[in-house]
Design goal:
The protein contains 13 helices and ten strands. The termini are far apart. The protein has two domains: 214 residues, Rossmann fold; 93 residues, Rossmann fold (3-Layer(aba) Sandwich). It is an alpha/beta fold. Helix 8 links the parallel strand 7 and strand 8. Helices cover 48% and strands 15% of the residues. The radius of gyration is 18 Å and the shape is globular. Strands 1-2-10-7-8-9 form a six-stranded mixed β-sheet, with helices on both faces.
Length: 325
């Protein structure tokens, strides 16, 4: 059973497009020459916050304003992109946005969140520790907790897959990164609502494999660390509701190394002159690893965000691999 009907998805798309427009999908010729497959790139790095997360923030805050009109604001945890989207949408609705990040988080993403109106709090050594603290503080603050996965978040996120799959109906395989799961679940939801044929491949870091290990085990598997510079995938604990969707809706889940991701970031810049952050480059990294399996076929990758810190980008362009923070 589809997570959303086509009508529900189209309603979400009208709302999102009215606020931020649509993002392009291009089949870049240099990528096709490099990989031997036509590669559609969905450019979520072109949103107003440089990431797909803004879409879900728009539908979530719209839902919150309609169902809890007296709500003073939201509180959430993030590594950066989710927080930027929530802050932008909440402040536009006249709400507070309290955002927790782990210590040592991206300085540039922190600055962007503050610029969008977030009240930033640093706590914990990683995303999952920050998320647990938000759960404790939400009630005392009198704010609405925004989880990393929620039906209204997914409904908004699914609009990028709606745009992509309606524009390119012949896509056979779609690669999408997995953090907490809203992106891959949005792709599954859009594919099913549209009756599209695309096989969806989830991509995780080899250093943050909770989603892959959980699918293989048939239940949630927590990892002890998630040390990758692809911070959008740096998750130790999978989300049950997301797992329930992608464990059956995804064709498979593959891993990429930080070296693979760095190579994909360089490839994006060389072949398209687009910036990609680690999680944004991971789908292309996965496709590059198995390009031999897709010769002459039509594929797609989600460039979910372009918010890479300058020092990391300089390291990558110099042939190196950034150290995780």
């Amino acid at each position: 059973m589809a997570l959303f009907s086509r009508t529900e998805l189209e309603d979400a798309h009208r709302l999102v497009a009215a606020r931020i427009g649509t993002t392009p999908q291009y089949a870049w010729p240099q990528l096709e020459q490099r990989l031997g497959t036509r590669v559609w790139v969905k450019h979520e790095n072109h949103t107003a916050t440089g990431s797909f997360k803004l879409r879900g923030a728009i539908t979530f805050i719209d839902w919150l304003a309609r169902t809890q009109p007296d709500c003073p604001g939201i509180i959430t945890a993030t590594r950066g992109n989710h927080g930027q989207g929530q802050a932008m949408a909440a402040r536009a609705a006249g709400m507070r946005a309290v955002v927790y990040v782990p210590r040592g988080n991206s300085t540039e993403k922190n600055a962007a969140m503050r610029a969008f109106g977030a009240e930033l709090v640093e706590f914990g050594n990683d995303f999952d520790e920050a998320r647990q603290e938000v759960l404790r503080d939400a009630k005392s603050e009198g704010l609405q907790f925004v989880p990393p996965f929620h039906t209204e978040l997914v409904r908004g996120v699914a609009t990028y897959a709606y745009e992509l799959l309606t524009a390119a109906p012949d896509i056979e395989t779609l690669f999408v990164p997995i953090g907490c799961g809203s992106g891959i679940c949005g792709c599954i939801a859009a594919r099913d609502a549209l009756g599209h044929k695309a096989r969806i491949v989830g991509v995780v870091s080899e250093n943050a494999q909770t989603a892959k290990l959980s699918v293989e085990a048939g239940h949630l598997v927590e990892t002890s660390t998630a040390d990758t510079f692809a911070d959008g995938m740096a998750v130790r604990v999978s989300v049950q509701d997301a797992f329930d969707i992608y464990r059956t809706g995804a064709d498979r889940i593959v891993t990429v190394s930080d070296a693979d991701v760095a190579d994909a970031i360089r490839t994006y810049y060389t072949d398209t002159h687009n910036l990609a952050e680690g999680a944004g480059a991971a789908p292309l990294a996965a496709l590059m690893n198995e390009a031999h399996m897709h010769q002459g076929k039509e594929t797609a990758v989600i460039l979910c965000g372009g918010n890479i810190d300058r020092d990391w980008f300089v390291t990558v362009l110099g042939g190196g691999i950034p150290e995780p923070r």
